[in-house]
């Protein structure tokens, strides 16, 4: 299905009943609530259970402490409540706004305004997690607009350009992360590698590199470790769906299943190799070495290209840079700019799921389907039926 433009929406959907576009499972706005909230609760609980299970496994020994389990439990409840309220109150607000506007829909009041308003539920997440969610949605909305521009032939997102974006993003990201190395509290950031702190001359070590032991061993160990992580993720994705026939699944493993492993291993290996080279050549360590090291490491992107990942490297770097701007009072700390940005992103993306699914990021499609427990698919199907003759 192609994108439904504003003129087409206003011409076709303006006078359509809300049950056809919002709650097709029940004609009544009130009677449709039980299924809506029940589905949102089940879907959100399942969706976040997988996310938190992965985080528990990644924390490893940290989960040996009882307080960590209580904290993770609290965060899980808050995230599930966020998913429930965003998913369920969006349709409620859409119906309410339609009533207030004389039983008429407009392009902006159908989904954009309701899901922008209930984006305020982001405050249910603790500040440490809130930033990660906001950063994710910023990545997704940039990906969406890039796809829209590419579809309109204003932009051609080639593999080369994606690689260049990732190289630039990695360069500034690693540099800013090393600048933050001496802080007691670092900016929460979802990235699969945290570079070592800058080795200071005053620490009494004879080694100028930011690690202990021989450089060759350090780089080789880095490559092997992250290659193994990438291989584990890729093989799990390939084998687990075929767990009933393990021999057949293992025999179907091909070289393409090691692309992510090569990306992880090369990305970290190249970065650390360049850092060590510059430290040995100059005789001291510096945060600026991360600029060429991160740029060169970005070439590993060619093993496993992803538009979302190239965008994520740039936005992560911008997030760290914005922290500096806040500290220097360049950005006003009394205005919740990140939360406002999140509300805009959520309204844009959730609207795109229905009116522009071709350009909508896959993550958003899966997120809405999972958290709504399938009710979003019913809405999309009904919306398609209403608009198909006008496309």
Please explain how this structure is put together.
It contains 15 helices and no strands. The protein has 391 residues and is mainly α. It has two domains: 1-151 and 336-391, no CATH class; 158-328, no CATH class. The longest helix has 35 residues, at 66-100. It is elongated and about 75 Å long. The model has no long low-confidence stretch (mean pLDDT 88). Its main location: membrane.
Number of domains: 2
What is the N-to-C succession of helices and strands? HHHHHHHHHHHHHHH
Mean pLDDT over all positions: 88
First-last Cα distance: 9 Å
- Helix/strand-derived category reads mainly alpha
**What's the total number of strands?**
0
Unreliable spans are none
Largest sheet: none
Number of helices: 15
Proportion in helices: 55-70%
- Assembly of the depicted chains: single chain
Name the beta content range.
under 5%
Main location: membrane
Keywords: Membrane, Transmembrane, Transmembrane helix
Pfam families: TMEM135_C_rich
Domain Transmembrane protein 135 N-terminal: 17-146
